[in-house]
Amino acid sequence: MVKNYKKKQNTGRLQYSQDDMVAAVLDVNEGMSERAASAKHNAPQSTLHHRICGHVQSPGQSGRSTALLQIEEVALAQNLATMGDFGLAFDLSEMRMFVKVHLDTMHRSIPQFADNLPGVDWAHGFMQRHKDLRSTRHCQNINRKRAAVSEVICQKYFDNLQTSIADIEPHLIINYDETNLTDDPKTKLMIFRKGTKHPERIMNTTKSSTSIMFSVTATGMLLDPYVVFKGERLQDSWIMCGPLNTHYNVT
């Protein structure tokens, strides 16, 4: 279970500004003593000493340093958001495994990670530190063929359609749409860039589904719906209490 850490109020907060700390460091570099620079700019002397010695990994951050370097966390956050844009989103488990592979490849060992695998707490903490990512998004799985449809392909389709229906009467033009009701969609919480309107993940595997077809003519006449179940024989229980004027079939 993930631990929800709650800091006490008015504790662990920085009591100085980063501008004052930078000014104090500059004064020390110009010859002023650390004590004098600390008093002049109201910056803690111990913090000033650590900053000058280069012992601070994340300037301006209170509390314990992160397990990964700040530049690594920023790069990880940016790449996760980009992968989500490409339809190759990661979930939290895949993100943790990705970090482990990175550390193993770089021959680095992080004491906070068991066998270099970040824990669940670290993953949630990472998401809290990078608000431009969101892990609470259910995405729609689409295959690669559908993902490859571009604006140029759509434009060619409508150009060909306009030529094809040029001399056809409106009541003979039928628009047809199919909707699948999946029995086990198994949507997962994936990582996407903040503000993504249509989160999708490209996958080549699908689940069985029941197809419902709707058709309407160019004059506005709605045809009867058509339902197709997966199977070889149509069972009476499948159509019991179904909508009126509905046609049923099997694959």
TrEMBL record:
Its main location: nucleus. It is found in: Nucleus. One of its GO terms (cellular component) is nucleus. This is HTH psq-type domain-containing protein. Pfam families: HTH_psq. Residues 18-57 form the HTH psq-type domain. Coiled coil: none annotated. GO terms for molecular function: DNA binding. InterPro entries: Homeodomain-like_sf, HTH_Psq.
